[in-house]
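Progress against Task 2.4 (sequence-to-structure conversion) is shown through the following example record, which the project officer requested during the mid-term review.
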Amino acid sequence: MRFKTQGLAIALVVSSLLTGCSLDGDDGKDGANGNNGSNGSNGLNSLIRHQSLATGSTDCFFGGTKIESGLDSDGNGTLEDSEVTATTLDCHANTVSTSGSTLPYTVLRGDIDDGAEPGRKFEIRNGGYGSDMVKHPTHTNQFYALTDRGPNANYTGDQGKGKLFPTPDYTPRIGLFELQANGDVKQIREILLKDTNGNAISGLPNSSALGGTGETPYAILADGSVEVLREDMNAPYDETTNPIKLDDFGLDGEGLVALSDGTFWVSDEYGPHIVHFDADGKEIGRINAFANDTRDVFHLPAEFAYRRANRGMEGLTVTPDEKTLVGIMQSTMYLPDSSVKNLDIVRIVTVSLEDGAVSQYLYKQQKPQNSQSGIVALSATEFVLIERDGAFFAQNPDAMKHLYKIDISNATDLETFAVSGDWQQDAQLGLTKNGQTLEQLVLNQGWEGLTNAGIMPVEKTFVADLVAEVAYPHDKLEGLWLINDHTIGVLNDDDFATWSTGGVLEQKYLDAGHSKVDANTLYIIDGLELTPEQ
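Structure tokens generated for the chain above:
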């Protein structure tokens, strides 16, 4: 049995080997083709659209082209906004050259001898739009600009020191200007400033009760002679019956705000006053430090009446929500007197337009007696301001015309500073220590006299040097036009192209060779970092 079993197993193995070595058979015939599948849907078309951008565009301020692309999802052959997946911008270059774009002007008077060029007459130009500038609330390529009190010069006459007014009937005004595609500036409108009754105001000084500092006005008559300006120019001066002509509505405007409701706020160097004007230039409200002024809707702290002559509230802006005015004095106030003149301490004030609530902060200048001559809000606490000297670059290569960003959020509010012991709030002088004003403390102890007590100035960051940017040739950098978060426009005060040396009037020249007359000139600086941090 064991033998038979082995034989069977061998037979099976051999059989398996023979089977594994056999050849494959021929392939069978192909089966019939299956039915075609249904057609797939067509792919989406890619679309492109081009849009020309005008000057003032939020995408390209100087104009250009916006190129948008995407897929035609709804198949209507038109690229809808919801279908845009990519956008590129081809922006034009800055159309305002580094030499700037001059504003148009007319001639107010051309019959006065040029004291700088004997035998020649000079032009008093209108002009004068440079005390401040501000963007139009809705038209992005337009701006408003402000004049001051009108052409004037230092002069001493029979009634003492004062100002010589070659056009004493000049009315301060606001101009509306538009930047053209080629970089030119066109004037659109002129708004004369008026009193509460709708009468045109002047730029003549106020009475002493409302901030006047005793500046006596003088006029140049048609024959070239100079006389004190009086109520009746056909009668001789008399202190009682024909006194010096003053104007309690007169303004020396320096700061400008344009609100979205069409009204304006103007700050000045006389009071200082902050005056509210309607869209046609008529006064509708006022803020100042004089408690007895019945025109006031709110009051500044009493210490602001100690402004230094010709260095009042040089800058004014409003927070983006249009609820708070923010003003800055030009230089150190005479608080309490001129002994503090040569300092670097400057006051900033904020006024709520809802209830008149006031805050005060301190700014530390780069150099004593510099000028803060413009301010514009980036946010509720951040601002760009001008700090400058009074030099012409052509005559002084060290001329300083700077922009700084400041932040008041960590600065000390002088109105809420905790008083006790030596520190008190004086009704006339504001915050004091042992009866000394903050200006006196800086004079006697330096800024440490304040910071050691916890009084901190606003934080400041350098933004731009206009001399380095455009070889800025003018002495008075004063206007700021915030265009966007990287572009700003600046404007100078040309003093109506009028200057004086030793009380003698002359053309205002930019250079010692008298080859170029000063003029209101717009410069636009881009590539800046102006984005608020808050």
